[in-house]
Amino acid sequence: MEDIARLVGVHQTTVSRALRNDPRITEAVKIRVQEAARQLGYRPNPLLSALGTLRRQRASAYYQTVLAYIVKGGATGAHLSGALAAAEQRGYKVECFEIGPQLHESRLNGILIARGIQGIILGPLPEAHGHFNLDWEHFSTVVIEYSFTQPAFDRVITNSYDTMNIVLAECRRRGFTRLGVALHQIVDERNEGLLCAAYALARERDPGMAPLPPLLMPDWDADAFLEWFEHEKPQVVISSNFFLPHIEACLQKLNLRVPDQISLVNLNVSSHRPNDSGVCQDAPAIGGIAARLVIEKLNHNDRGIPASRLTVLTEGHWFEGSTLLQHCQPIPSPRPPTSPRDGGQQPLSS
């Protein structure tokens, strides 16, 4: 601010007030000061700004620097709760901003800059490869999951490859051989194809595992699922929250009981489906890690797009649930004919 004051030819106090849009400063002086600030690359320190605010207001209330948690499409998910807790422990506050018809990205950009909010957590986007534009050079930014692809910010991601391997290992340990994967195409793309990659490699390396092709659909298609199910005859259907309610409805129409006659496994067990067997990705822990990374970047004045992106992989853990049998039931097989009268047509064992 001393440099700005010298350049403009005013007192440092005037610079401070002009940068805060103090009504005591004329509009002409504000414009000169703010233009000089842009020329010199001035950036306010949110921690010092907070301290200055407390001193000016003689406030006794505890001040918390704000981090922005930005979502698009209306879904905050459980990541936000983890970010809130981690930030609170470190003296920060998290506010959620939803980009949509009521808050365009350009307006959000102005709000963040005007309020001096410099730490941003970008929540998962509804699309597979999404993005939006802010003046990124003003912000310390961390992304959750793969869906926000450009610019390439530091990110915290569930190890999707490992998630599929955990599921396959657990199913094989229980004796299942026919493991079918049915996923929404967006789920596969949002995980960079790693779920299907792990599944394909496991089929190649494990001779005891039936080579069932995965079913990827751009949207739910009951006819396509039933055709795949009848042809491949999986003992276990591995899916996610997008399709599992639809799959359960189809199985009920076929009078198949879960898990007695067909088992289900969820790749992302959540509080919305607490009875599912599968992998818990621990979204609150992911949100907490993202908040800690943003705070570390703020403390080091690390803003803008990184030259080399940092990716933090988190590990999920198996959640037992009640939709996967403890032991695989033997697959019925035909009995050999006992007499010529049978004509080789012997009923299957029950």
Molecular structure report:
It is a single chain. The strands form 3 sheets. A 6-stranded parallel sheet has the order 2-1-3-4-5-11, with helices on both faces. Strands 7-6-8-9 form a 4-stranded parallel sheet, sandwiched between helices. The protein has a two-stranded antiparallel ribbon with strand order 10-12. Helix content is 38%, strand content 16%. It is elongated, with a radius of gyration of 28 Å. Helix 1 crosses helix 3 and helix 5 crosses helix 12. It contains 12 helices and 12 strands. The termini are far apart. It has 350 residues and is an alpha/beta fold. It has 3 domains: 41 residues, no CATH class; 126 residues, Response regulator (Rossmann fold, 3-Layer(aba) Sandwich); 122 residues, 3-Layer(aba) Sandwich (Rossmann fold), CATH 3.40.50.2300. The C terminus is likely disordered.
> What's the CATH class label of the largest domain?
Alpha Beta
CATH superfamily of the largest domain: Response regulator
- Low-confidence runs (pLDDT<50, min 5 residues)? 332-350
Strand arrangement, major sheet: 2-1-3-4-5-11
Q: Shape, please?
A: elongated
Supply Rg: 28 Å
CATH topology-level fold name of the largest domain:
Rossmann fold
Distance N to C terminus: 84 Å
Overall strand count: 12
Helix content: 25-40%
Which sequence of SSEs, written as H and E, runs from N to C? HHHHEHEHEEEHEHHEHEHEEHEE
Largest sheet composition: 6 strands, parallel
Structural class given helices, strands, pairing?
Answer: alpha/beta
Number of H- or I-type helical stretches: 12
Q: What do the pLDDT scores average to?
A: 87
**Number of folding domains?**
3
Strand percent estimate: 15-25%
- The CATH architecture of the largest domain is 3-Layer(aba) Sandwich
